[in-house]
Amino acid sequence: MNFDFSPDEQAFVAEVRAFLDEVAGWPDAADIMCPERESDSILADTPARKAFCRALAQRGYLGMSWPVEYGGQGKPGIYEYLLNEELSRVGAPLIGKGVGCVGQTLIRHGSEKLKREFLPKILTAEIEFALGYTEPHAGSDLAALKLRAERDGAGWRLNGQKMFTTSAHFADWYWLAARTDPDAPKHKGISLFLLPIRQPGITIHPIETMGEHVTNQVFLDDVFVADDYVVGAVNKGWTYICEALDYERFTFYTFSPLEQKLARLRALLCTRRRDGAPIIERPHVRRGMARLTAKVETAKMLQRRVIYASTLDRVPSIEAAMCKLYSTELHQEIADFALDALGPDGLIDKHDASAPMGGKWEWSYRATALDTIGAGSSEIQKNIIARRALDLPLTY
Ligand SMILES: Cc1cc2nc3c(=O)[nH]c(=O)nc-3n(C[C@H](O)[C@H](O)[C@H](O)COP(=O)(O)OP(=O)(O)OC[C@H]3O[C@@H](n4cnc5c(N)ncnc54)[C@H](O)[C@@H]3O)c2cc1C
Fold first, then answer.
1. Is 257 helix (H, G, I), strand (E, B) or coil?
2. Which of 50, 59, 54 is nearest to 12 (CA)?
3. In which element (H, E) is residue 105 found?
4. Which of 3, 82, 143, 149 lies 20 to 30 Å from 302, alpha-carbon distance?
5. At a CB cut-off of 8 Å and minimum separation 6, what does 390 contact?
6. 46 Cβ inside 6 Å of ligand 1
7. pLDDT band at 287 (very low <50, low <70, confident <90, very high)
């Protein structure tokens, strides 16, 4: 079986790499490309990173898989995957929320007005979105969300609270799920809205996570949204959210950070010494590195299966759940192993100059927990696999 990419796809990767080499010469390159950062989804939250996203747009790298009639290039989704792999390899902001979740959903379900208003701005990287799904009592059980949207003339009045809205502190628009029919079964009374996130009635409070990823609580107090800004049909929001979440699991969890992390750990353990000898010479460290190398290869195969399934023109939900579960937990396992192998030195954090690799592994140990929770926790991925791949009944 040949797992190689086609000559066209390989040429595209070479083109992206050449572009990233150019960016490495930009004065603010260090802000844009941070390979040591401990998060797959580096946000476009500084002027330099926004300028970088606009440069991606100018190169035609945004919306490559969108239909030509909406300004896209009608290319297979694999090009977006290859682009994200290259971006995450150098720790640059990924394409995701706008082009992926919001853009793809609008193309499939949005009104002509919403398509005309938002799609061109997504393609030029002019606007940033925040996704408002989770609430204090609705995370894994997202359909239990309570934020109320009540009829008010030619629109809706929104009241309630969201939790863990990443990007709310710098985004322009809020992609928000609210309950429009409190009497319908819980999956059936939800609608999706688009609203400017900076307006009276919206209050944003930051939440620092243990992995240093900043996310937010958002409070909505009598915020009006006109009917035109309901996405798709009223009370059909659940279907759209599920599609967008599958897309998020597919595009946000790239493979190259795993491969790189292990290569860097290997290099470190080959040179760093404990008790007079390189750490790599310890038998349990060698065994551990061999085990992790095999697992990284497995993660690569799971990622390739997601890509293959997506070429069959269906949402690769089972494959994406397996890949997300396996690769996010493998990130944790590598960090855990690194701390064991490094001994007490591994616990020194980045503020201390003596920390190995600038404190990467201590940070990694804290940060890798986050990706096992965001976009559906590991337990939820297991539920998806049990139900959709194994046809097992729900037991709760
Ligand atoms: C870094 C980060 C960024 C995020 N960004 C966003 C964002 O931009 N927008 C947004 O809307 N949300 C965001 N989230 C929220 C995220 O989607 C939720 O945290 C996640 O869905 C889990 O929900 P919860 O935190 O309420 O935990 P809970 O749902 O309360 O779960 C608590 C624990 O119980 C387990 N559990 C729950 N239900 C089951 C079950 N049925 N079977 C087995 N185990 C179960 C979970 O796995 C977990 O271990 C983000 C989260 C993180 C960590």
1. helix
2. 59
3. helix 103-109
4. 143
5. none
6. no
7. very high
Instruction: Find out whether the beta carbon of 213 lies less than 6 Å from any atom of ligand 1.
Output: yes
325 contacts 385 by C-beta, under 8 angstroms: yes
Query: How far apart, in whole angstroms, are the C-alpha atoms of residue 36 and residue 360?
Result: 7
CB 190 within 8 A of CB 145: yes
105 lines ligand 1 (CB under 6 A): no
Q: Which residues contact 76 (CB under 8 A, 6 or more apart)?
A: 65, 311
Contact 205, 220 (CB under 8 A): no
What's the predicted TM-score (pTM) here? 0.93
252 — pLDDT class (breaks 50, 70, 90): low
Residue recorded with tokens 């965001």: 374
Structural domains of the chain sorted by starting position, each given as residue range(s) with its CATH number in brackets? 7-95 (1.10.540), 130-241 (2.40.110.10), 253-389 (1.20.140.10)
Helix ranges restricted to H, 144-255: 237-252
Q: What is the dihedral of CA 263, 266, 267, 272, to 10 degrees?
A: 150
Q: How far apart are the C-alpha atoms of 144 and 375, rounded to whole Å?
A: 16
Instruction: Tell me if 129 CB under 6 Å of ligand 1.
Output: no
Instruction: Indicate the residue type of 77.
Output: G
Asked if 368 and 335 touch (Cβ cutoff 8 Å), the reply is yes
| Distance set, CA 181 to CA 105, 132, 134, 184, 230 (Å) | 22, 18, 18, 6, 14
Q: pLDDT tens for residues 329-368?
A: 999 999 999 999 999 999 999 899 999 998 999 999 999 9
Confidence label for 133 from pLDDT (cuts 50, 70 and 90): very high
* CA 70, 75, 81, 83 torsion-angle sign: negative
